């Protein structure tokens, strides 16, 4: 394809309206895209109050075409010498594939930005009802033996049929456009699975916060006091040992299996030491569990509590819990 080849072809090359007082008339333009690109078009006129263009903007797919109906509004008086100085301008430019009409930026047909915009000018011609000519079918009717009145009736019926066909095609195009718009608006930004996953993550985070800051049992605290040799050995630490153990459990959910000294250094909520972490592991039903000689892991008590929480939560979300 040569670069000088136009983006679109317009038929006919001028707009012809059958002019009658207080009666609207229309003229259809067929715009064809004979390129491999998506081409956007826009129709402008020097007299926007006299004409109704539908559609006045659109995007034509490669090797496709569309019909633009230009309706001339009803007038109350005849123009001078049946001459019309109105002009139409049809602009076209290449756009990206799958670009919809609503997605076209305001400067699509602006030449100031260096965009290549082609223009096709059309003039307007008024035709009186007496001088209007039909197509080959009408000429055959004129040569027939039918009376002039019958010929006029057949011509009127043919025009009405053509108008109905054009209107049906235009309505089909508008229906397809509305379907595309509805699909775009009804498509959710996130899927239902993504929303449920985010809700589950939020609830799990709330459970972990509750696990960290809930009050400990008096039995666990008293047993920890018995297991500790003295208050001075642990230093100036918090007396709420169960809360401290659960804070370390939250750290283990993030980093997994950790060394005893590593998890003590990772704690930023309170002062911790190697001996303090080992003492927390000795609490009955503690959420911490000594693994080997120098590692700490989540105890079965913490995993069972977390599993029971998930089993209770999933039915509330309408999901089935499987063992």
UniProtKB/TrEMBL annotation:
GO terms for biological process: endoplasmic reticulum membrane organization; endoplasmic reticulum-plasma membrane tethering. Residues 7-127 form the MSP domain. It comes from Nepenthes gracilis. SUPFAM superfamilies: PapD-like. Residues 154-184 form a coiled coil. Pfam families: Motile_Sperm (PF00635). InterPro entries: Ig-like_fold, MSP_dom, PapD-like_sf, VAP. Belongs to the VAMP-associated protein (VAP) (TC 9.B.17) family. The chain crosses the membrane at residues 190-209. This is MSP domain-containing protein.
